[in-house]
Amino acid sequence: MPYVDGFVLAVPKDKIEAYKALARTACAVWMEYGALNYVECIGDDVPYGELTSFPRAVMAKEDEVVVFSWIVYRDRQHRDAVNKQVMADPRLKAGDMPFDGKRMIYGGFETLLQARDATG
Q: InterPro entries under this entry (predicted)?
């Protein structure tokens, strides 16, 4: 079963275009080094929960939008090899990040269950 890295972060609304540019570059880099799938999603219906929620988890402010992303690999070993190359790539080292990395949540996950719509 595939291995997945997941990310949740808050991006200031006035930096969305900069984030999109960074995401396009990151996608190209990860895919070049062997990631199987790379997805970036901008929050559209992400309510602020009473106890827990995506916005609470990243301490999103009124002027920020939540981004939910994931990258898929063959397995953990493949992920570690891909990420080693990605982290050494100079294309991701230039410039300031358009979000507060200290509030980003990330982690690696073993796939428990997977289904696909064959028509989609």
A: Dimeric_a/b-barrel, DUF1428
